[in-house]
Amino acid sequence: MTVRAGRELLSIPGPTNVPDEVLSAMHRPAVDIYTGSLVEVTMSLLDDLRGLFRTRGRTYIYAANGHGAWEAALTNVLSRGDKILVLESGRFATGWGAMATTLGADVEVLPGSYTHAVRPAEVEARLRIDTGHEIKAVLVVQIDTASGVVNDIAGIGRAIRAAGHPALFMVDAVASLACMPFEMDTWGIDVAVAGSQKGLMTPPGLSFVAASERAVSAHRHANMITPYWDWTFREGEEHYQKYCGTPPEHLLFGLRKAIDMLKAEGLPAVFERHRLLAGATQAAVAEWSKGGTLDFSILDPAERAPSVTTVLWNGETSGQPLKALVDYARDKCGVVLGTGIGALGGRAFRIAHMGHVNAPMVLGALAVVETALSALAVPHGSGGVQAAIAHLARNVKP
Ligand SMILES: *Cc1c(COP(=O)(O)O)cnc(C)c1O
């Protein structure tokens, strides 16, 4: 027996739910790539991306996923042999760093963990001893979707300046743009990357890079540049050059609608919605964790991300495999949970509250997790959903 008929609820941290309005905006004939509406859409998107990243710098749109934006960011500003510092706080900054190694950079990882955010003081201390300014760039993620951490990007920017270090500051905002504040210029960020399929509520296949003046200067001397990602070619006169070929038209129409929806809601309201739904999720997990089997990956509540919650599974105290929980939620109840990745593979599950989400979706996902915990007799504190409801009732004013 199951109770899963109807629309499946995708609660993984990307791709996220695509609004019907975005799907509808994509349902149209292909259009000319040299004139007309597509050119206007490109120009409006490049401009709105500046607004989302909060920069007066340049923005680029790639027909690629987040990994493409990673490669675009690295190859446009670095040269082979450049030393870069990667700030670990889960899986993604180190993944970006591994890509940089393959491209010929000399990568040093500032060790971190899946339990806490990057410590800005440690960044400052490392940069201070680099008196010869060998380090050319610092790489970090704002939200790491593996650990569920949110890093203090403003604080890390201050640490770089406090050390008086000229390294480029490169930030992955794939799982945080349009989920929480991001202030590229104010925080001193030189290169920022994001993708379409997380907070931006659009199908996977587009990614974005924003570049400061300093990044553009570095680009002029960089020797890692390859043709497809090259900013200079993309600055050319012809519209197709913006995409180094045929534009991903339908994704662009979808993104246009998604950004219009974000603007209609208002970015501060979008951020607040994420914060509230994250708070509800955290309230539920805090109750469940009283049973000893489940726990937060991130120890300090202030460092838990507003777009995804990573829940540790303490195998020693449980007779039930984690896989049974994820399978039950999907196969019996129609909720797809994220599984643990990176160092937490097989040791965690993830509940996304990212992008096009509202109270019934998140409360529904939490209720299904609690149903699965009960059905599988996993030791857990009961009343997680009640705590989530109480959190919303307390914080969402009439
Ligand atoms: C999803 C994600 C990526 C990778 O994006 P893809 O589109 O899967 O290549 C990079 N960084 C973070 C923080 C992510 O969450």
Could you explain how this protein is built, in words?
This protein is an alpha/beta fold and 398 residues long. It has two domains: 9-16 and 266-395, Alpha-Beta Complex (Aspartate Aminotransferase, domain 1), CATH 3.90.1150.10; 31-263, Aspartate Aminotransferase, domain 2 (3-Layer(aba) Sandwich). 40% of the residues lie in helices and 16% in strands. It contains 13 helices and 14 strands. The strands form three sheets. Strands 2-10-9-8-5-3-4 form a seven-stranded mixed beta sheet, sandwiched between helices. A hairpin with a 4-residue loop joins β6 (143-144) and β7 (149-150). The longest helix is centred in the last third of the chain and has 22 residues, at 267-288. Pyridoxal-5'-phosphate (PLP) is lined by residues 14, 65-67, 92, 141, 144-145, 172, 174-175, 195, 204.
Task: Please tag this protein with its features.
398 residues; alpha/beta; Aspartate Aminotransferase, domain 1; Aspartate Aminotransferase, domain 2; 2 domains; 7-stranded mixed beta sheet; 13 helices; 40% helix; globular; binds pyridoxal-5'-phosphate
| Span of the ends, CA to CA | 39 Å
Global geometry: globular
Unreliable sequence segments: none
CATH second-level architecture of the largest domain: 3-Layer(aba) Sandwich
In the CATH scheme, the class of the largest domain would be: Alpha Beta
Q: Can you say what the CATH homologous superfamily of the largest domain is?
A: Type I PLP-dependent aspartate aminotransferase-like (Major domain)
Tally of strands: 14
What's the alpha carbon Rg, rounded to whole Å? Answer: 21 Å
